Amino acid sequence: MDSVTIVIISALVIGLIYGSVGLLSGFCMMSSLRGWWAQGDRRLVRTFALAMGVGIAASQLLAAAGIVDLGKSIYLQPSFSAPVMFLGGLLFGYGMVLSNGCGSRALVLLGRGNLRSFVVVIVLGIFAEMTLKGLIAPARIAMVQVSQVTLAANSAPALLAAFGLSAAHARMAAASVLAAALIIFALAHAPFRKSFGQILAGLIVGLLVAAGWYATGFLGADDFNPTPVTSLTFVAPIADSLQYVMLSTGSTLNFGIVTVFGVFAGSLVTALATGRFRLEGYHSPWHMLRSAGGAALMGAGGVMAFGCSIGQGLTGLSTLSLASFVAVAGIMLGAAAGLRGALRVRPLAAS
After folding, report:
1. pTM of the entire structure?
2. Which of the two ends of the chain, N or C, has the fewest CB atoms closer than 10 A to its terminal CB?
3. What is the pLDDT of residues 234-272, one digit of tens each?
4. 43/46 Cα distance (integer angstroms)
5. Closest residue by Cα to residue 321 from 80, 142, 110
6. CA distances, 313 to each of 74, 83, 136, 343 (Å)
7. CB 60 within 8 A of CB 209
8. Domain limits, the chain
């Protein structure tokens, strides 16, 4: 079996597991923040924090062992535009509040029969493609060109190494501190410690991030036909999936496309098996307009930020990239504006 086929099968398995876990646990950054800031329920945000901590620890162990070269990923490029990534994060964070969830959550809910999520996925994919290669692309490229900088240190370990630590010790120190802080934050909450399902969901999703790196960075390592080193992310892959569905002749499947299909399939199978499947739609034109508008912001913002709440919030941060910290800060502030700030989005019934 060639390396490409192995990566495709790995992506399908990872997607199926993520879709199932996402449906059963409600795993979602937006739901986590809403529960924490608006409803006083901190369990979901602890699940997300646990996934972040486990993802960082497991991914950095792979890198420290020389199994995966995270430096080949898009998150550790020598040059990046902090203003564009931060702005993209803001747009994405606010958009996911408008749409009531991010791209990965939309795929999970679509598998459960939520037709609102179908609109979100389609609009997100269209605007992502417009920002990558279409009408919005020239403006994005121009903004990046005038604002990008090249840093001597593009990651937390590299920053520590600049102060005299060896590369190995810098990686171990940065990964240990961040992973431990996140895991302790998660487990310090007594109600969360009693939620075995949420703990399991955080562990599984964090390990799936590392599994994605392993699949593309180790199993997909081929001197003649190398697979791009990546892991869980959903904005560009949703756009690629829509393009593949429409123009598959001459195109090839990749890790991202298969993961998208896997998440939908995993959620669908789980929903049917557990009796959770039911068709749902919009209850007003305004509801649809707001949801589609949020999807458009997520599509454009996710491309500008090089990822989404999963692509940067989990996968990007697992590389300890400084650019990912900038993007995640933007996503968090955008979500805060939508949930609690002056631009707060009023909840809609049955949304």
Report:
1. 0.94
2. N
3. 999 999 999 999 988 777 899 999 999 999 999 999 999
4. 5
5. 80
6. 14, 18, 24, 23
7. no
8. 3-339
